[in-house]
Write a structure and sequence with these properties.
heterodimer; A: 62 residues; B: alpha/beta; 6-stranded antiparallel β-sheet; 58% helix; elongated
Chain lengths: 62, 646
């Protein structure tokens, strides 16, 4: 089933593939916690990181 | 996860320290505890659950052994603990849960909350305590997944008897789908926050577009909420209809009519299915044979071509090359030679000029041929469609007839003088109406969501164009875009993954059920529909879940649990209390024979009656450890004794 999930992620736009995989991984980690706190903040940090990377990639291509 | 051993200390009827090792070998993966009723099988089963998750103790009364308590003085305490050692992936763990019980006259008090420790056992034998034991335990086998691997066999058929929400919940939890759902919610939240920031900093044009998008998303959210509410309402009204029909089946005065209704409903379901298939094949013929829509057009076109040819407007088939040859040889078609001054020469030249170019001529001739083929195919397709239409109409008429018969039954039931039958029927009709209205509402809500989605998509394109103009907000717009795109992508993945999982579990449940049920020829199929209704189809292609015996329901539940475990790739043991209580000879043999192959480790707590010839014959070849629970009447305590039969 992990492979199926990975396949579905691979079909996504390259700009968001890694972000989606990372968010799912984070959520799985937090899901097992008794009192999960702080996942939204971590997701925001990931978005900041991938948005900056996406702009950098675009600039390099141009 | 593979359990290695359990050690009890003054737990319930287990006095002092007692232990049992579970078999962990691949070929001998079964461990059996057997004993008479009341010897402590359920206590031992609960001890494992209590130790690992802190649950299950509430149903078995006081945890501390009474004999141990009787030996201490007032104010003194007795320690009660359970330790379970297990392997998970590359690590060995030791879980320990304990309480201190203080004696106070004839009463007792538990001092403080239970103490739970989880240690990783190192190769050296050292134990390294995990700082957050519950978290680690939950990541190994989540608490909400546990009930599908550690369960009371007698209550197991609850899964198939229960409404579909329980089945859906099981699939979601075992497949860890809540992680995807939460990922979607959280990304939506972040995207929303980023839009607020963008609105503050962006141009009026962008602000307007963001506002429009927000409005659409709010609309979508409320439609999704409504859709989920409708699904729940549909489930509840269906459940109520089923319950009321069950009650009608129990009434002597209504039983016959209700049974007729059951048959009609099941035949209606088949007919509607047949109608759906017919519609699909009609669509297929129409899609692939659009020529059939030509009707007489091909025939008419051919006639027009022939008429034109007769009038000489279209070449009658005389080839350009043939006329050229005559002119070159200066010999007429009748064999008479001619010269450049003859009338024949002029006629042939005129003919060459009026004759269309070869390419056009060929086109025309080709077109005529194609039109003839099309005309033939059109007639064949029309005949096929007409036959399909007749079949479709016949099924439609049959469905209408069945509906009328159902109406008649409804009428008859509501006229029965026995007050409760008429009352039950009225209630049933009310919930059935609710069910039907909600189903229609659900379809329209789902359509509405699709429309909103396409509007959002269109708006996001416009927004991208507007964002491109705002260089200063480049990073912020990119963040919002990827957050929203990721949220949308996860929502899609969630739906696809869930559907894939459902289909995989459906197929695996059927496979296991085929192995476990002895009436393989009778039960043709197991279905888990999109709303998670589990159904068994019999040899007459009719749904038969309601007619399953208690044993068959238990087997269906077991098949479902094994299927989930297989699909999820969850390497957890199957720990079952009273697993065979409801199974008769044939089922007991097939279950005992097949169960060890369906899980990596099987731990059974069986009564002496369950541990009969059939189960022993089938299970002993796979049993690596066997224990007898012996209750001592004099001490009121139970001893775990290993059966030295191997």
């Amino acid at each position: 089933m992990r492979e199926i999930l990975a396949e579905l992620i691979r079909d996504l736009d390259p700009d968001i593939q890694e972000l989606v995989a990372e968010v799912i991984r984070l959520e799985r980690e937090y899901l097992d916690m008794i009192k999960p706190r702080g996942v939204v903040q971590e997701i925001r940090e990931q978005i900041d990181k991938y948005a900056a990377e996406s702009l950098r990639r675009e600039a390099t291509q141009e | 996860m593979k359990l290695e051993y359990v050690r009890l200390e003054n737990f319930r009827q287990y006095y002092g320290e007692q232990a049992a090792e579970f078999s962990t070998q691949d070929d001998l993966n079964v461990t059996v505890f057997h004993g008479l009723n009341g010897t402590g099988k359920t206590s031992l089963f609960s001890a494992i659950n209590w130790c690992l998750y802190g649950v299950g103790a509430e149903e078995i009364g006081e945890l501390t052994n009474k004999a141990a308590l009787s030996e201490v003085s007032d104010g003194e305490t007795v320690r009660t603990s359970v330790s379970v050692s297990f392997r998970h992936e590359a690590y060995r763990y030791l879980a320990q849960r304990s309480i201190e019980t203080q004696k106070s006259g004839k009463t007792t008090h538990i001092l403080g909350p239970p103490n739970f420790k989880l240690s990783r056992i190192m190769a050296s034998g050292d134990a390294k305590p995990e700082p957050n034991p519950s978290l680690i335990m939950n990541s190994i086998l989540p608490e909400n997944v546990r009930p599908y691997f550690f369960f009371d066999g007698e209550k197991m058929d609850d899964l198939t008897r229960a409404d579909n929400s329980e089945v859906e919940k099981a699939v979601r939890n075992v497949m860890r789908l809540p992680a995807l759902e939460r990922a979607h919610q959280h990304l939506e939240k972040v995207a929303g926050e980023l839009r607020v920031e963008l609105k503050k900093q962006g141009s009026p044009e962008l602000e307007k577009l963001i506002e429009q998008e927000e409005n659409l998303r709010t609309k979508r959210e409320s439609s999704v909420k409504r859709r989920d509410e409708l699904k729940e309402e549909i489930r509840l009204s269906k459940q109520r209809v089923d319950e009321l029909e069950e009650r009608l089946r129990e009434k002597a005065g209504a039983k016959l009519l209700q049974n007729q209704r059951d048959q009609l409903q099941s035949s209606l379901a088949q007919l509607e299915n047949q109608r759906g298939n017919q519609l699909k094949s009609i669509q297929e013929v129409v899609n692939h044979s659009y020529i059939s829509l030509l009707g007489g057009a091909a025939e008419t076109s051919l006639n027009i071509l022939d008429e034109k040819r007769e009038r000489g407007e279209i070449p009658s088939g005389i080839r350009e090359q043939f006329v050229k040859d005559l002119l070159e040889q200066m010999v007429c078609i009748c064999g008479r030679p001619f010269s450049e001054h003859d009338e024949v020469y002029d006629t042939l030249h005129k003919l060459l000029r009026t004759t269309s170019a070869t390419a056009i001529e060929n086109e025309v001739l080709g077109l005529a041929g194609t039109l003839r083929v099309m005309s033939t195919r059109s007639m064949q397709d029309a005949a096929r469609l007409s036959q399909q239409r007749r079949d479709y109409d016949a099924v439609e008429a049959h469905i209408e007839q069945q509906y009328k018969a159902l109406e008649e039954i409804k009428h008859q039931l509501s006229q029965i003088s026995e007050e409760d039958i008429a009352g039950l029927e009225r209630q049933r009709a009310k919930f059935q109406r609710e069910f039907e209205t909600n189903v229609a509402d659900l379809r329209s809500t789902e359509d509405n969501i699709k429309v909103i989605d396409s509007q959002i998509e269109e708006l996001r394109h416009k927004k991208r164009a507007a964002e491109a103009k705002e260089q200063k907000l480049l990073l912020l717009t990119r963040k919002e875009r990827i957050a929203q795109d990721a949220a949308d992508a996860i929502a899609r993945i969630n739906e696809q993954f869930f559907e894939y999982t459902r289909r995989e579990i459906e197929a695996a449940t059927k496979e296991v059920f085929d192995r476990l049920a002895w009436k393989q020829d009778h039960f043709q199929d197991v279905r888990l529909d999109q709303d998670f209704h589990m159904e068994v189809i019999d040899r007459w292609q009719t749904p038969t879940r309601k007619e399953l015996s208690a044993g068959e329901r238990q087997i269906l539940s077991l098949a479902f649990i094994c299927a989930m475990s297989k699909v999820a790739g969850e390497d957890a043991p199957l720990v079952m209390d009273t697993p065979f209580g409801r199974l008769s000879g044939n089922h007991l043999s097939t279950v005992a024979e097949n169960l060890p192959d369906l899980t990596s480790q099987l731990i059974l707590f069986v009564t002496d009656r369950e541990w009969d010839e059939a189960s022993r014959t089938n299970l002993e070849p796979r049993t690596g450890a066997q224990y007898q629970l012996k209750f001592d009447n004099q001490t009121g305590c139970t001893q775990i004794s290993e059966v030295a039969w191997l």
